[in-house]
Amino acid sequence: MPNQRQLEIIMELLDNTDTYITASSMAKEKQVSLRTIQNDIKVIRDELSKETSIAFETTSKGSRIFVKDETEFARFKEGFFLNSTSFSDIQEDRINELLLFLLKQYRSISLYQLESSLYVSHSTLVNDLKKAKDILKKYNLEVLRNSNRITLDGSEINKRNCILERSLIISNTTFIRNDKGISSQLDQIKDIIVQSFIDLRIEISDVDLSNLILLLYVAIERIKEGFYIQPYDLEITENLEPEINIARTIFDKIKKHFLLKVTEEEINYLSLYFKARGGYAETVISNETDSIITEILNEIQETFGYDFANDTNLRIALALHCNPLFIRIKYNMQLKNPLREYIRQEYPLGYDMATFFADRLQTKLQKTITGDEVAFIAIYFYSSLAEIHESTTGQKVLVISSNRASENTLVRQTLFKWFSNQIAYMKFIAPKELEEKPNLLDSYNIVLTTEKGEFYDNGIAIYINRFPTRNDYLNLRLALEGLKSIDNVASIFNKNLFVVVDSGKKEDIIQTLCDKVSQYYNIDGLYDSVMERENMRSTYFGNGFAAPHPIVAVSSDTFVGVCISKSPISWDKDNNKVQLILLIGIGKNNYNAFHLWNYLSNVFSDRKFVKQLLENPNYETFMEKIKDAFSDVN
Question: 519-537 pLDDT, tens per residue?
């Protein structure tokens, strides 16, 4: 039976029957040696040799599966995927059993005892231990080994987090007999919580109630087994009133009902849990919090062009969210967000603003903010963006130019020729004159400049060439009209910025796209700016997409560079696989261009887009699919 890595290679070959996959690319993707892959190929050849609908080919180009009978192949493929998934599930169950076994040990245990207890071979145990160590590392837990014995090191809080997130002991099959008969332990915990909140006259949402039931279930099971939160696990500096009163009320009922000893550390941790979720006490927004948020919103205006600093509703919403968020960050209690991928795909601009916001918070707090928390913040930005409505009829245009009036005539005539229906009025003004009349800017919808100086650098004006080019036309059309038609949006995708590769490394792909864009638009520093954004947080958007982009606008031009990779590329530390990379640049000071993200969200959420594109990976197919996707955008 092939191992998990070999099964994954077979599935990749079955999904890409028209493509040769090289052993070296497999080795890089799986992070093993070339010799290991060569041995894997022998196993794969033997495994597939019995199937008559296909032939396994290995040439100098690489390995691939040749389909002899399409109908029989479809049946074989479906059956193989089902069986492989079952194998994967079995291995996952075995690893979870190993994790739970280790979490229940008071002292070190020998490998022989582990093998006997779990009914696995030595080689299987060693294999599973490697995967278990990687999982435990995420919870700051470490498997220590001395000779042939191992033990699990780490705080009780982190151990419980692992149990909760991995659902290692949550079950509805734990029963207790009481006066009313037999009922599940989870139901009894729910009754205790509900009665406690009724006694205290405090409301609790269904989601918070469900999460609290599971948290207390794990706590009770661990306390029964003699595992308590220790004083050194907690160094709480916050005032826990009134949350400690809620925690004490709940635990008083729990210790009587389940006959348990409950320590102050358990009560304090539950109090902190409540405080980290917020809503149980009157919230006061401190001047420090408001100042931090306002400062970051001002930076967002400089980067994205949206003025949120005067959006009182957004500032209050972010402040109320940040108060408990700061506690969650401080005590490593950040929330899980099951809608993270959906939010990232559906609200990409809001998510990118939230990423920027979180990055600035991280710098100030010197703590990491998870992608799940970023997704929560993204909802606030999306809500504010949805309320912004911009009118584009009868636009007044101001052009900042040091040129003589005669030299500006060409610009004036060209702009009126291009946009006679959109421009109601146009005025040219010298930079020095504008410095004396700064309020004049408020009277105009669009501000242009013929030189890349102070007004361009400070985000006030869009640059336009003294001899307007097609790129100027596209940028100005975007500024004046926004993205009102499919063809309007599709014009951003330039065939000169399109590339197809067999495979590659993330950094090399980004470099290739940056080189193409930089050469076409004469841009400096694009790659460095894109990599700065990559280092903040992954630009993987799910469904095989990645959308790298510069941290700040680097040009007046709005562009999308496209790379299709015939083989999956590992994109981030979570090993997310990508085959369609869109290098996105939003034109500097061109705020209508940000609406491009709204169109792209429809592409990111399409699970079939990449797979269908790979059947015929060329520019024409790409543009056809892009227009189809954009046609569904309101």
Answer: 999 898 999 999 999 998 8
